[in-house]
Amino acid sequence: MFGKNEIRREGKSARRSMGEDLRKQMSRVICGLLSESMKRTIPRGGKILFYSPFPDEVDILPLFHDLLGSGDYGFFFPKITSLKKALMEAVPVSIGSDLRQEDLHFGIFEPISGAYEDPKNLDLVLVPAVAVDYMGNRVGFGRGFYDRFLVRVSQKCKKWGVVFSGQVMELVETNAYDIPLDSIVSENGFLECEGRTQEGGC
């Protein structure tokens, strides 16, 4: 079993080594897989939490823009409410909503305003990661924003890790407060973390 610091180094290195063009290409493939999986598993009107990617993460914003005008789902983005306590909330985003880059919040884009959605109402959370393993264990940047948020969602809410295949490791160290993923989506396919695979595997 690898420690989290070692896994972070390997996961970050795997993302950086891809290069910008390959990351964009693989991100488009992953967006296609996400779209197909959403159509099969998320009911019409379901509520989905997207994320605003860092430059070397899987870019799912093209998928968000493609789906935004469809009326099929409700869309939400994280908004950091406390850096000190590593807390975030889900804020609805629709056509005409603005996302603003927050320098104090790691430079990611966040909703400017909007009421906070109860996490228990979400049907799907798309979760970025530095690394994951086949059991659904996830390593992030170490602050715990998503672990604190995911503990608040309902049991019916799906938690899909979105990564490049080079970020999928054999086994990563976990702590009692880590929240495992239900599935992993990479350019190689959709993997259910219980071991059942669809459309290939990670």
Written overview of the protein:
It is a single chain. By secondary structure, this protein is α/β, with parallel strands linked by helices. The chain is 25% helix and 27% strand. The strands form three sheets. Strands 3-2-1-6-9-11-12-13 form an eight-stranded mixed sheet. It has a three-stranded mixed sheet with strand order 8-7-10. Strands 4-5 form a two-stranded antiparallel sheet. The longest helix is centred in the N-terminal third of the chain and has 22 residues, at 20-41. The radius of gyration is 16 Å and the shape is globular. The chain starts with a helix and ends with a strand. The model is unreliable at 195-202 (pLDDT under 50).
Secondary-structure topology with pairs:
Blueprint: H1 4-17, H2 20-41, E1 47-49, H3 61-68, E2 74-82, E3 87-93, E4 99-102, E5 108-111, E6 124-128, E7 131-133, E8 138-139, H4 145-150, E9 158-162, E10 168-169, E11 183-186, E12 189-192, E13 197-198
Parallel strand pairs: 1-2, 1-6, 6-9, 7-10, 9-11
Antiparallel strand pairs: 2-3, 4-5, 7-8, 11-12, 12-13
